[in-house]
Every structure is written in structure tokens, then in C-alpha cells.
Amino acid sequence: MGATNTTAAVSNRPAEKQPVGVSTLPAIHGPADPSFQQFLSRIGAQKGTALELAPVADRLFAVVSEDLTGGNQDVQAKRELEDARQKCRDGNPFPLVALQWPRLVIDDEGEAALFDPRLELHRFDHLPDYLLDVVLSDDAPQLRLDWWQRIVLAGFFAEPIGEINCAGATGCGKGLSVSLGICLWFDVFPVSRQHLTSRSFDHVQTNLFGEVRQWMRRMEHVDRGLILNQSIGDGERHYIKILNPSPSASTAGEAFSGAHGPNTLYVFDEASAVVDEFVVNAQKNAMKIVSLSNPRTLFGLFRDGFKPIEQSDRNRIGVCSGTVGMRLCVSVGGSDCANVRHQRLRRPVAPLGGIEINGRRFDEGEPIPKEYKPSVKPLIDNQIDIAQFRAICAKPDQREVDVFAHGKFPTEDPQKQVVMASWLQRHIDAWHVGIPVTAFGLDVARSKSGNETMLAAGGPRGLNRLYPWQKDDVIYHAEETIRIAATEYGIDLRKGQNPVCVDTDGLGGGTADMLKRYGVWVIEFHGGIPSPVAPRQYGNWRTEAYATLGRRLNPDDMWGQTTWALPPGDTALYAELSAPEKVYPRGDALRFSLSPKRKPQGHQASSSLVLSVEEKLGRSPDRGDAAVYLFVAVRIRENMNEFFAEYSGPLVYGSGESIEAGELTRAMNEEQKRENAATGNAGQPQDPAQAAITQWIGDLTGVAPGVTANDGYQVAPTAGNVASNVEADPDGTPPRMSWSDVFEDW
Q1: What is the pLDDT of residue 442?
Q2: Does the predicted TM-score (pTM) go above 0.70?
């Protein structure tokens, strides 16, 4: 009896166990269709009521039909989405872009015509067919993307492309195309690891990762996983995350070589400021590497990556062999951007030089009436517009215009640079293990995650090595300096015989005080005080420090026959040494200072006539400053300052003699002639530099060298000096030693 009742109870609840749904219905052709009438009867039976079906039949049919149609549409949409994802994996990402971000699809036919990539066919001369076919495909919807952004995005999913280098003008939209590529990569590859790196953790978190998060949230169809402050993903095999270790960490390089997987992607933002070692380690396991930056440097892997395609100025996009597959190189100027090409404005004010809109001329600074705004509204949000482009082009420094307006890499300028990049290679080639260390330069940074504290070790022959670390502790800075000197070079700094030059203007003051307590010979460097060596030529000590090292490296200066070794492969150091430029304040044509290390507080970037070094490099010049402080210590320890004080070489190297240099040389020669006349010496006036150097070598070697007709040095072979192993000529004439002989033996 109990069993029967239970069965009956269950059979009386069909609605809970067998709910009616559109998936159980056959095709229905109208309210009078027998299938539909049967469906209505089932509803009435289940509710236990006698429904008056006729009055509601039409309405119910409309609802059911809508459900059926909607269900079919969902299936169709899913099929279309999966087809687009497969096309993306096969190399064409644009149908998927249209589905994921409908706001990028252009509905206005007039605007769509402005974005037709066929209008820029002359730009594609050097693109391979596998990229060209995708960018110009009829299957590609009309999107609010510039033609070059399409090329970058196509490169993400082109199988032959293993590296993408994108160098662009300020605000051109590099981040947009790369951010879209990162989001699509996450969407179409369920197993994928993506790592984002920049010059600092804060920079990548705020800029590239911040933009990726925005576009990820706008995607219509994606399982995003968790979106956090440093990562996006749903597991250890499917993520996007920030990877920005300290370059000074012992395991920094390994962080880029341990993420193995079939779809591992590395993205380097501000790549010209990223340590090359990071990129080299990423190449070991990456499926693809994307690097983007302003083209602001003469050195590094990012800069070198463009050299194979630099056949002409017009050919600024091309493909060449890379380390990871083929390398797509894209250089973008402001004139390549839609908002500049079509004279669009973010603010309704006529730009520098004025503008013509629909036949009416508006002069510079004139407000643009509301009825004209639709004709000049931006075509791409947040992209550089015609006003910003013209403002950059009006800068007095042509190299700044080339970099930030036209997206071109800078060239050397002998009129402005105190250290030329072309001087450095011979000094790099001269480096070898065991460069003698007698002095140190210390640039202190009080930071655990930003700039690095940098110690330079070297001597008169060059820079042996740089030691970076990150710590917020003056005691640690002092003790680490003492430890490195002792363990690496056997030097006990506490004896006070080997100087350490410390920049005490900023954060190094406490470290300098601590070193002095230990008995260390500390040279306190104050960059803003007058030049101790040549105040008539150098505006301050910082200028003197860089300029004198520049003269030491200059092959055309008095040190040209000798080298000052620089460690090989340190492109960051080379860029930092050559970054500062001469500034002639208040119209003084003879006495110069240097471009500031960083922009003054409260000033906008590039707001002054001169870019700061940090703006130019995209980072603090810690390595260059440490090397310069080292040379200050070497000059003081070896009594070399007299050479730079007694002789002022040309202010402009490599481009002829400057006015001041000529005047100084003539004045020195006239003074020497008067001395010769007074002493009865009728010889030619001696170069004061040669005289000073001659005396210095004598002090070093313990002998009195003399100048011969061929500019060699006669050194008597006496015991205990550097020439003691040099035999005299058979006729008894003392051997002649060249510059290179003297310095090599020393």
C-alpha cells in the first residue's frame, strides 16, 4: 500500500520532473498548428485547470516563437564566434576583433572609407604575402584601427613571425594594437602564458597592463578568470601577468627562461629601457616576443632589431630574420596616424598654424564652433591629434622632433653631445678580464623596486665592472661597497688609500657619512657646484664630470692613442653615457651645462626646450652616473685634473675647432713664444697638454721623459720604473716609448 501511494505521488508531479521547454517541441507553423495545440493542452493538464486557450493562443505562440528563434540565434552566434576564433588561430584576427569589441566596428560609411587599408598600399611594398593577404582580406571587417595597427595585430597570429618590434611616435597607439593582441591571445589559446615587462613595475602596471585590463573587460565573449592588480587568468597554464624583476637580482634573467609552454608570449613595453638580458632569456622559450617603445636610443637589442630593414627612409615597415622566427619591424610616425592624417582635434581649438574646416579658415587659438566639431572629432580615441603633432614638430631640437613626432631613431650630434656613441667601440674592444681597480664610483638609490644603487670599480685603464643592487639602507650601501672592494679586488677601503666618489646631492649623503666613519676616502660629489677644474668652460661639476670623461674617450683629443676600457655588452651603459647634451644658458656661447638628469617637479614632460636625461632614456642613468663618478675618483687619485685645467680642447669634437678653442690655443702659443724669446729657445711652441702629460708620466714612472721629433717618449731604462725591461738601442740611444707603450706597461 505504501509503495503504491508513493508511486502515485511521484506520478502526480510531472511539472517538476519534466518541465516543458522549447527543446522538446517540434517545428511549429502557427497558432492553429496541431503541435502547438497539443503543447497548450499539456500546459492545461499540468496546471490542473481548464484553460480557455483560444484568447491566449496568439500571444503564447508569439512568446514560444521568440524563444525558439532566440535559441537558434544563440547557437548561430556561438558557431560564428568559434569560427572567428579558429580564423584568428589560423592568422586572421579581424573577424574576432569585430565580435569581441563591437564598438571598434565602423558603421558610418564616410568614416569607414578613411580606414580602408587599400589607401595605403604603397606602405605594404615590403610585406610578405601571408601578412598582406590578411590585412587586405575582404573577410576583414572595417575596424577603427590604423593600417599599421592592423599589421601589428596580424603579426601576433602569423605563424612565421616570432618577433614584433614596434617603434612609434608619442601617442600613436602602439599600446592599443598590442593590448588587443594580448587579449585575443588569451581568448584563443586555452593554454597560454603571457608576461608583461617594462622599465619598472609601476610603469607596466599603470600603462600596458592597465590598458590590457580595460580591453579585457570590454570583450563580449570571454572567460576572463580573475582580473587582479598584477595578473589575469584562471590557473598556472592560462594567464597574463606582470614580470618585472629587479635587474640586480641574481635570478633576474632566470625569471624569463622558466615559463615553458606551447603559447608563451613575452611583451616588453618601453623596450629601449629594458635590460637586454631579459630579452635574451625570454628568447629561450618564447613562441613570440613583442617589443614596443619610442625610438629614443642608439643602443640595445630593440634598436639593433631595426637595422636590417633600414635601407631607406620610406621603407619603415618590413620583415627580416630574427632570433625567434622572422621579425616584423614597424616604425610609426605621427603622420601615419589617422587623427593627424585627417586633421582631427581632441580640443575644439585651432592648432599651431591654423586649420581649414569645410572651407572655413580658423587661425591658431581660435575656438571652433559646435557645428564644425563633427568634422574634426578624433577618429581614434586617445591617439595623437594634429595639434599635438604640430606642437612637437615646432620643438627647436630636430632630433627630438624626429624621435617623438616622426618615430625615427636619433642620430649623433657632435654639436651637442659630450660623449659620442661612435667613440665607444674601441674602448669596448679594449676591455679584458683583470682591468686594474684603484678607485670606485657610487650612485645611491634609496629604493627596493625602482632605480638601482650602482657601484663602478675601475682605474686609469678603464671600468672593470658595475655592481647593482636595490636596498633602502645606508648602512647596507656602505658595507656592501666595502665588502665588494675587499672580496673582489683585495682592497681594504678602510685604509683610506682608494677613493670612493659618492653623489651626495641626493640620497648618497647618509651613505657617504657612513663610509667616512669606517675610514674610507670619500670624494663627495656635488653636481651643482662650480667646476673645480675649468669653471670658464663647464657650468657645474656634473658637466665637468661627463665632459672630461668624454674627452678621455674622444679619439681626436689628447688621449686618442689610448683607451679607457668599457665592459662589453652593456648597451644600457653606452646609452646613458651618450645621453646628456650641452645646454648654453642665457646665451653664453662658451660656457655650457648639461641637460638635467630629471625634469623639475611640477613640469610636464618635454615642457622645456631640453629633454631631461630620464625623459630621453626612459629611465634613470644609474650606470652612466656611476661610471662618471669613478672617473672623477681616478682623476683625483692620479692627479690628472691638471691636464683638463691647463688645456681646453675644442668644445665641439668632430666638427671643426670652436671659437673658444681657437682663441685659447692661439693665446697659449703666443705665451709660449714670449717665454721662448725670453729664454732664448727658438723652438716651436709646445702644446701645454703634451707638457702636462709628459710631466705626469714622469711622476708615474720615476723618470723624466722627453719629447722626440716623432712624438714618442725617450725613457731612460732605470731600475724600478715601468721601462726597466726595455733595452737601449745598440748605439746607446734611449728607447722611445709611444703613448700606448707607456699606458700598457703602466
Answers
A1: 97
A2: no
